[in-house]
Structure formats: structure tokens, C-alpha cells
Amino acid sequence: MFTGVYTALITPFNKGQLDEAAFKRLVDLQVKAGVDGIVPVGTTGEAPTVDFEEHVRVIELAVYYARDRVKVMAGTGANSTTEAIHLTKSAEYAGADSSLQVCPYYNKPSQEGLYAHFSTIARAAHLPICLYSIPGRCNVEIAVDTVAELASNYSNIVGIKEAGGTPDRVSQLRAALGKKFSILSGDDSMTLPFMSVGAQGVISVASNIIPRQLSKMVHGYLKGDAKAALRLHEKYYPLFKDLFVETNPVPVKAAAAMLGQCREEYRLPLVKMSPENRRKLRSTLKAVGVLK
Predict the structure, then answer these.
(1) Is residue 236 part of a domain?
(2) What range defines the domain where residue 147 resides?
(3) Which residues have C-beta within 8 Å of that of residue 189, sequence separation ≥ 6?
(4) At residue 13, does pLDDT exceed 90?
(5) Looking at the annotation, which residues are catalytic?
């Protein structure tokens, strides 16, 4: 079961190449802050613009640098089933603990197509699979019935990252799937609302910047201290929102660069933030005490 805080790691670049030294620092920072897991090469890790070799290399580095201190949930989804299988098998060989499988994007499959896609991956690999429903990017949602059927028929489909949904959908998922199936928020600002109706944690963008605080919030709630968790949510809510003032991962990588964690370098077609949004993000980082 997936619980707690899993950080959707940014992928640092230096002059167009993977910055492996910076990536090690990022992984070490997460480990020291007490997160439960890291998620390399997801959306936040710019998976759409790394090539096959780079994608696998980032997963290998994550496993190597984590050294079993935190779980590694490798982002190995794709809009091509064959590609997703290749990446998932590569992650399994590299020693990842689980796989995050995004809903296929752009080709907009039917629910029957989604079932066929995820079930084919589940049969081809042995890693525990966390589905990833994000209709805002994929234009299609993994229906509750589809999730339930997949989980019923494939023992390695054990969780879902729910992004762009509502507490009502989380309630539907929990009712259909029982307590053993993991539900993780895919939106930092919705973590506590989702947990209040049965989610067990978050795959977080904000924890790139505030990993210790996110861990305190989530584990505080899991231990029954809802008031303390709410105080942390309220304090960092402006940051949760402003890390999405432009397309993820542009703001979070800009914030990490402001903190000296990596270079602010992206792969096209992503570009740097507008001056106005940069000023807004910097102001928020200062207001919540992250940046002096």
C-alpha cells in the first residue's frame, strides 16, 4: 500500500544534459526530509521531453541514490502501450519499487481501451502499479468502474494517483475498491480534502520545495492530528496554488533554482516563467518562509 508523501521529482538539466550531481542532491534532500518515496520522470520530471535512454537513466539514478532509504515509484507511463511496457520492464530491472502509469494522453482511448492498455502492462511486468488519472492533461478520466475492474483482475494494480478529481470521486473510489487499495492525491491543494474522505497521502509537486513540511502535514493527519495538519495546509496553501501559476513543472523548477537546488533549465517546448509570475512566486516563497 502507498501511504504518505511521494515527491514527484524535477529532472535537473545542465546545458541540455542530465545534471546527475544536482539530481543526487535533490534525492538526498528528500531522504533527509523524511518523505516516504520519490517519483522520478513523471510529469514534474519532464518525462515527455527526455528520450528513452535518459528516461531509464533517471530511474536508475533514483534507485541508486535512494539506496533503499525511500521507495522509488518510477514514472513509466506512456500513450503507447508498447512504450509503457518497455519503460516499466526497464524500471523493474533497475530496482524500482513500483510504477506510476499515467492515463494515455492525446489519443484519448475509450474505457475499453484504457482497460486493455493497463491490463496489458500489468501482465507484462511484475511491479506494483499505481494508476494516474489526470483528465486535465489527458482529456480522459479513468472511470471508477474501470479502476475497480482492473484492481479486481490484476493483483499488481494496487493504487491510483487522483489528479483533477473531487472528494466525491475519492469517496466513490474508496467505496468501490475497499481499504486495501491506495488512493493518493495528485494535487497538493486537495491533499487534506481527499484524505478526509479516504486518501492515504499525496504524490506531491510542492514537496520538491517543502518536503519536511508536507510530511508533517500528511503524517500528522494520518496519526489523527487533523488540527495541526490543517494549520500547515493553511500556511502553505498559497504556495500550493502558485506552483501552478504556469504549467507544471515550470514554477517548481524556478522555485528550486531560487533556492539554489538546480539550474533553471527546461526542455522545449517548456520555457521560463513570465517576469510577472516569477515575481509572484518569489513573493509567495518569501511569505511562507521558504525564501529569505
Answers:
(1) no
(2) 4-225
(3) 237, 240, 241
(4) yes
(5) 132, 161
Report the CATH number that the domain containing residue 41 is assigned in CATH: 3.20.20.70
129 falls within a domain: yes
Q: Is 138 a member of any domain? A: yes
Q: Please, what is the average pLDDT of the chain?
A: 97
Is 106 within the bounds of a domain?
yes
Query: pLDDT digits over 36-82, tens only?
Result: 999 999 999 999 999 999 999 999 999 999 999 999 999 999 999 99
Closest CA to 120 of 84, 144, 151: 84
How many domains is the chain built from?
A: 1
The DSSP code sequence of the chain is ---EEEEE----EETTEE-HHHHHHHHHHHHHHT-SEEETTSTTTTGGGS-HHHHHHHHHHHHHHHTTSSEEEEE---SSHHHHHHHHHHHHHHT-SEEEEEPP-SS---HHHHHHHHHHHHHH--S-EEEEE-HHHHS----HHHHHHHHHH-TTEEEEEE-S--HHHHHHHHHHH-TTSEEEESSGGGHHHHHTTT--EEEESGGGT-HHHHHHHHHHHHTT-HHHHHHHHHHHHHHHHHTTSSSTTHHHHHHHHHTTSS-----TT--PPPHHHHHHHHHHHHHTTS--
pTM exceeds 0.90 = yes
Block residue for cell numbers 474505457: 111
Share above pLDDT 70 across residues of the chain, in percent, rounded to a whole number:
100
Band of pLDDT at residue 138, cut at 50, 70 and 90 = confident
Grid cell in block for residue 154: 490484476
Average pLDDT over residues 161-188: 95
What confidence category does residue 188 fall into, taking pLDDT thresholds of 50, 70 and 90?
very high
